[in-house]
Amino acid sequence: GKDDRDGGLAVDEAKPKLKRPPLFKVVLLNDDFTPMDFVVEVLKSFFGMGDEQATQVMLHVHTRGVGVCGVFTRDVAETKVRLVNTYSREHQHPLLCAMEEA
Ligand code: TYC
User: Fold this and answer.
1) Over the stretch 38-81, which tens digit does the pLDDT of each residue have?
2) 47: domain CATH number?
3) 88 belongs to a structural domain
4) What is the domain range of residue 92?
5) How many other CB atoms sit within 10 Å of the CB of residue 33?
6) Residue nearest (by alpha carbon) to ligand 1 atom 4
7) Residue nearest to atom 5 of ligand 1 (CA)
């Protein structure tokens, strides 16, 4: 009860449900073939980055192998991954986008 005689352990104690949703990192993977300019355009178009940040992230992926494009809820992350991979395939580039729980 709210007088806390039960220490908040009563089975009828309703906890306010304010849980934050799980978040997912959307990442780009490096490859040997996708042009750097194409990766920069993807980061600008699908992730709202400016020229400078997009170039930094692209170079990070190029040198480290993987890099974070952004952190989103599950549905948004899934949609970003699908849109980027479809766009890359349409342009005959092997660029891979993926998601992982943050
Ligand atoms: N490694 C590519 C090249 O040298 C560039 C590249 C960067 C490709 C990032 C994919 O996610 C990537 N042209």
Assistant:
1) 999 999 999 999 999 999 999 999 999 999 999 999 999 999 99
2) 3.30.1390.10
3) yes
4) 32-101
5) 9
6) 32
7) 36
